[in-house]
Amino acid sequence: MQHLLPALPTLRTGALLSVIGAVALFFAWPSGVRTAPLWGMPPAVIGALWTVTVIVRPRPSRFRDPVHGSPIAVIRTAVAVLAMSGIAVFAAWMIWECLSTWSSVLSRTGINTVELVAIAVGAVGLALLSITDILIRMLRAAVLPPELYRRKWWTRFRRSRKPVQHPEGPRRRTLTRAALVLAPSVILAGAAAVPLSRRNKAVQKLAPPSVAKNLPAYPTSLASEPAWVKDIDNILDIVAGAAGPVIHTSDGVTGINPLDGSTLWSYARKGATYETFLDPIGEQAGKNYPRTLVVSPDHQHIAFRISGPGTVKHLPFTDQKTMTIVLDTITGQVSNEHISDGGSLQITDSCILDGTKIYTFGSKTEKWDLKKLGVDVEDGGREAYFGTAGHSTFIVGHSEDHVDGAGILQYGSLSLVSQDDPSRTHTTPPVPLMSNAALPLVIDGWTAVFSEGNPTTTNGSDDLGWQMHVTDLDSLAKPGSTNAPTHDVGRSAGINAPASLATGKIVMLPATLPSPARNSGDYHKFPNWDDSTTISAIFDPSAQKTLSTHETSGLIRAVGISSASTGESAGAKIRISSMGNDTKTSFPIPPGSIFYPPGYPTYNPDMKELAVALEGFANIFALRTPGANIIILNPTARPNFESRSYRLYGITEATKQ
Which top-rank group of organisms is this from (predicted)? Predict the structure, then answer.
């Protein structure tokens, strides 16, 4: 055993160097992952076991005492062996825990968490350092004379005056020691290089260049039958992109050709878990409908978040942030991806507000940190706004009030910042808030504004409405902006959120509230509008004008399923009515397309307007996208907020005769 003593101190030095290298690696390549308390466990556990061996350390006298020494020496040796075994087992467990967590983070988010690999390497190096130190003390106690063992540690570095004869030459001896010093670092560095070289890039199929050159226009009429039908399972969200519908499923995000239903592009990351946020405004598919995508005002970009392992039950050791990804809806190309701290998620045409940080598309580094600028941002509570922002403006807060403090109409002023200079906050004139969430509604960067200041019983009422106009957020965020009406939409009770989100237009409510809605104290309880229309003026943000009746033929007012029985043959058909009621079309659907009979209330057989039908948990609704209106049917017996299987019908523009 004595021949091991010269090698162990050298090996211990090599282990110390590997620990230093692991610490340097931990701080040199931060990934943004919070790894506490994982990184503190190796020093704590291994240090505690090593300390026990220092307290109960073997002594030379105990090894050489034939009467009393042997039992005590055996006990002390057993403690040292148990400590070394515990250190080795703990190091093996740390390697498994760190690398399994690292693998899960990589597969779910694509983030290569170098810190976890560094912790694993550091744990092995620290274990080797402790074990070699314990072995050195054990062997010295066993083989060295007591007078030599008791010498102070610094005297061991003094060279003996008597030359020691070594069979090998000094060069060979130096090379051997150098190899022992470098071996732990080289071996551990090589082992760490294997996981660090792995990449879990998303599987992408990009759209051909011709797609960007031939973007489809929004349909201005309704075809009499669908151009395509598509069944899709595990749907998380559906939005309108710049080239057609964008569908988010548990497998990834897909851009659909609106003319034939084929795939334009796709983005998939195996094993990813996507963050959802509750959409309390639109209730696009009924109440409690979680969303995953936010869309830019020009519809060219979407943003979503991938959950980190902190939200995965079997990974308890990391408080992982989420990963935010921005995709180009025309090509499917990744425009931005970065670590997210959570909080509000908003998107403009060229930037994204993620929590308190603003990122520019094409850059992973933050452009601005609003917290450092002293700008307060609503931080993800019920009142925080998620979704479309202005073309170059973000919503960082809003006030909330009621007409004369007690009326049913909610309104508030928005706090806006420009993406180019967010250090200054601009307060807008009063805007209507959605009563079920007290949040503003933004369509393609535009919203409605009260033209006569704060709504009161002096300048309006539930019978007369309030004078309103629409404007874009960018204009409201400019210094010196006024409340001068730009696009008048007349008197109204507010914005029809479900119809606005379905059509991509700002659809205003009528000025006069129906009695049931007035009595309920919530004018957004749309079932109370059964006998009244929920639609008055319709403003098109892209054309920047209020649409006339003949310009709304491509907008869907109502969609439902009714019976199409003929004689002994039972059947069903989907019926569609345009916004101006000037176009009504229908087409049959095959038997087995729906779970309930055609007259079932959730199929909207009475052709109630979208807002009224959706409030009643309709199993059929619509979304207008470039190239086609998409009819979305839930063919199952499960409600929309539970079911994720939909049948999509692409209704393109009517063929001109």
Answer: Bacteria
